[in-house]
Amino acid sequence: MTKDISSKAQQFLTEIPKIELHLHIEGAIPMQTLLDLAKRDGKGRTLKTVNDLRRKLTFRDFPHFIELWTWMTTLVKEESDFEEIAYQVLRELRKQNVKYVEASYSPGDYWRQGFSVKGITESLIEGKERARRDFGIRCELIIDLIRDHGPEKSMQYLDAATPYLGKGVIGIGLGGSEQNFPPGPYTPVYKEAKKRGFRLTAHAGEVAGAESIWVAVKELGVERIGHGVRAKEDPRLVEFLQEKQIPLDMCVTSNVRTGVCESVEAHPIKEYFRQGLMVTVNSDDPTMFSTSISQEYLALTQRLGFSVVELRRLIANGIYASFMSEEDKQAMKSQFDSEWERLERNYC
What we know:
Elements: H1 7-15, E1 18-24, H2 31-40, H3 50-56, H4 62-73, H5 81-94, E2 98-105, H6 117-135, E3 138-144, H7 150-161, E4 169-173, H8 187-196, E5 199-204, H9 210-220, E6 224-227, H10 235-244, E7 248-250, H11 252-257, H12 269-274, E8 279-281, H13 293-304, H14 308-321, H15 326-347
Helix pairs in contact: 5-6, 14-15
């Protein structure tokens, strides 16, 4: 395929088998599902169409994004809504041939409604299991401890999620306002989570610099970094990440839309890839950022010059960077290889 992306090439990018490792359930709710929630809430008086909602969710900068995110969470009125939310999110991903997802969720964002971690988690598990039965897509959950709420709350979230470890929940993450809440104070929470068997990831190097990544790796002991865009500010860190093959969940459109990167072309994913870092491709909050995982691969091809061979390596990185068992990784790699070969015969 050439850089001139034809409709046939776009279809190829939709059909290639994929993995999502950095996806926030709340930021991936399909527009129609969100609109239905808004209408039920009475907000449908001003939000009558999907386009109305899309305009409402257009943000100016990162603080405005957080403000709109908070507004969006108020549309969910019942813990049981999360079953349908998970189901619809996974249905949309399955249309793009996503086979496996590690989806973050932030139950602490719903304190206004009085929701519990237990209620939200159980509803999400029901929704994702229904999606697996209906569409064959597998999903594991990562609970976001939300750094803005402080380490004490984080420990409470960890305690509440622990009964679901291995029963739908696989790990913990640390999202929120990285520039205001550095990772260091969460070290005791992460050490306890590791003891209990949780897999560990955290947002770092997105809004804050390289030091945030160092702390996440060295003190929190994370196995994977969410974003890591600003690693290049410290060449020693880049060497360390390459040597240790610590995965970076990269979200190109997200980083452009939030102002972390000036443009797709300015994003470091290609540079990191060529330096041998373990980078993966993800959509983060696709509804909020008007993107999709297929569009992320399209941008890499069209604007950063990734070849088909390189895309295949990126997707293989996603398999290896996941929290699946080694046996499951090998099985998925074999399945993906078979699908790639068939698709390349048909399209390339």
